[in-house]
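Quarterly update from the structural biology core.
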Amino acid sequence: MDNELLNRCAELIYREAAYLDEKRWSEWLALYAEDAEFWLPAWNAEANPTSDPQSQLSLIYYNSRAGLEDRIWRIQSGKSFASDPLIRTCHMIANLRLTGPAKEGHPCVNSHWQVYVYRPAQRRSSSYFGFYEHVLRPDPDGLRIAGKKSFCSTTRSKQCWISIMCEARGSARSEAAAARGAPKSQKPRS
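Predicted structure, tokenized:
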């Protein structure tokens, strides 16, 4: 059973990376539950990431999918100056493993990642690496991402986040989210 569950989890995490690289934004967002927590902790010391997004520095923290929707809206609307032209990415995911018994039926999966980035405007390539902690939730259509914590192990964590998401700094609430009455997500802390 663990191998079958791990295979299902891995397929979802691989698909998430592919959707980002292929800029299939709607499909990428659909992988996340409405109440999914998305967190990119900062490093409070050389080897210690922050542990509480409510009281410590975070590069990005969203307590629901609405924050991710805002970012995608800016990419698609052309209102993100730093996303024009869009960077090209290639995510590599490795070392996927279940990290203990599923909590309330929610499997927890850790993995390592590396993303290769090409910035057409600068004609420059770079790479970043780190590790993920995913909490997945079963739903009628399969598994959904209920929580994702992304640790960027490179020294330029803010640049790392920009590259991972193909998006620039800032999290002003989008007009689309405001029009639909979406709750304001927490702003990233710099």
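The longest helix spans residues 2-21.
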